[in-house]
Amino acid sequence: MDLADLRIFVRAAELGSFSKAAVALGVAQPTVSRIIGELETRWDGSLFYRTGRGVTLSELGQEALGRARHLLRECEQATEDLKAFSRLPSGVVSIGIPPSIVGRVVPELLIQLRAELPGIKLHIYEGFGDQIERGLAEGSLDIGIYSKYHEGARGTDRLLVQSQLILAGASEGWEIPPEIMFEQLSEFPLILPPPANGLRVIIDSIARRLKVSLRVIADADSYLVQREMALQCGCFMIKAPHTISEDIERGLLSTSVIREPYINRHIVLVTGTQRPPSRACSEIATRMTAILQTYALPTGSEPQREI
What we know:
The protein has helices spanning 3-15, 18-25, 29-43, 59-84, 99-116, 129-138, 198-210, 223-233, 245-249, 279-293, and strands at residues 48-51, 54-57, 91-97, 120-126, 143-151, 161-164, 166-170, 179-181, 189-192, 215-219, 237-239, 253-259, 263-271. It is α/β, with parallel strands linked by helices.
C-alpha cells in the first residue's frame, strides 16, 4: 500500500473536498480523484458520499480513516525515532486532556520542554473522558488524562489526583452546611453535564438506585455556562473542587461535600495501546505524572484542601 495514497485519502477526508486536498498537497484534482477511485476498487466499497458541497465519509471511509491515520503515524514515528535514537527524544506527542486540567499541567510541561527537550512537539486536544478514551483506542492520541468516578470512602492506593464531588452554588443568599446528603440534591435546581459525561453517568446511577428524583434544569458541557446559570439563575452545579477553586477563593461560590454516598473523582493518566510508546511519549508521560502528583493528597486530607 502506497503511503502517499493514504496521505491523499486522509487529507481529502479531513478537508471534505477533493479540490481542497489537491491544493493542500500540491497535486492535480484528477490525481486525487484517481487515487481515491483506486482505493475504493482495492477496498471494495465507496469511501465517500459525493454532495453538492464536497464529500463526506461513508461507513467504510470512517473505518479506513482511522486505520490510515494509524499507519501514517506509525511511519512518521518510526522515522522520528530512528533519526533521534542517538539524540534527545524528539517527535510529536498527541495528548488528550480535559479543560479543567489544562491550566495546571500544560504550561509547566511546556516550560520544561522548551528548556530541556525542544525536539518534542505537542498536539493538545481538549476533551472529556469518553472523547479521550475513544482517541486512545483509535490511536489518534498517545496520552490521555481523564477522570474516573466511584462511590465510597477514599482508599489508600496512591492516586495522581483525587477529590470528592461537591454541590456548588452562588454564595449570596445561601447558607450551606459543610456536607449534604445525596438525597437532599432533589431540593436543588441542577445544571449538569450531558448524560454521556462520566460525572453525569454516576450521578444518574446513584439517583436511580436511591430513588431520588433530581431537578435537572439544563444540560451543559461548558463550565462557563454552568457558572453563569449558578450565579445568575440560582442553579447549582455538581463539581470536583479544583475545577471551581478560583471562584470559591473569590467568594462567588459556596460548596458542600456530597455524602451518603461520597463520590470520588480520580484523575488518571493513560497511554495508548495501539503501538509501543515512543521515547518522546514515555518522557511526556513521566513528566505529566510528576506534575499531576504535586496535586495529589495524602490519605486523610480534608476535601477543602483538594485541588
